[in-house]
Amino acid sequence: SQQGEEDPQALSIQEGENATMNCSYKTSINNLQWYRQNSGRGLVHLILIRSNEREKHSGRLRVTLDTSKKSSSLLITASRAADTASYFCATVPNSGGSNYKLTFGKGTLLTVNP
Amino acid sequence: DVKVTQSSRYLVKRTGEKVFLECVQDMDHENMFWYRQDPGLGLRLIYFSYDVKMKEKGDIPEGYSVSREKKERFSLILESASTNQTSMYLCASSLIRAGKTQYFGPGTRLLVL
To answer: Residues B7-23: pLDDT tens digits?
Structure first.
């Protein structure tokens, strides 16, 4: 079953604008990760946020985590055409022997228009 | 630099054929994973391995088997390919510690006719 669910499914913006994608999940997590996938390629890890963290930055990326609402958001500032890709959140559960498995959402397709 | 490679980018096979997809990582990672990715369904875990010769079923193991004879190599086997196994197959690896980042290969797009 899908743990993370991204919202929106698709997002189209102009270059220079900010893009915000959301992820909701159902069960307690150890951490949440965001990945990017360019068309027809493998996934690339962007950022990991632990359950005891609320916000994390990496370059133009800002991730927030609200464990009380079981949700996370990914903000890309000053977007570029090269940011066009699918973005996935993935969660690691907080219990049991499966805490090295990632459960992925279905992704948000971001299109940045020049 | 971290590298995960997959044996083929594109593969066309016929129904009933035995298909081998190979994945190699050069990072000395303990964990290796096979996913399939389909439109509207996202990534689904087929199998993973946490050590040589050790494996565990993922969410959709039916119709697949795996082999891990060496730490750096993880193979996905379709014993008798069917058209519903047409998909994008992604391999990944990670360190043994819980919740670690996964590193993905470029993917193999398999078409079963």
So the answer is: 999 999 999 999 999 99
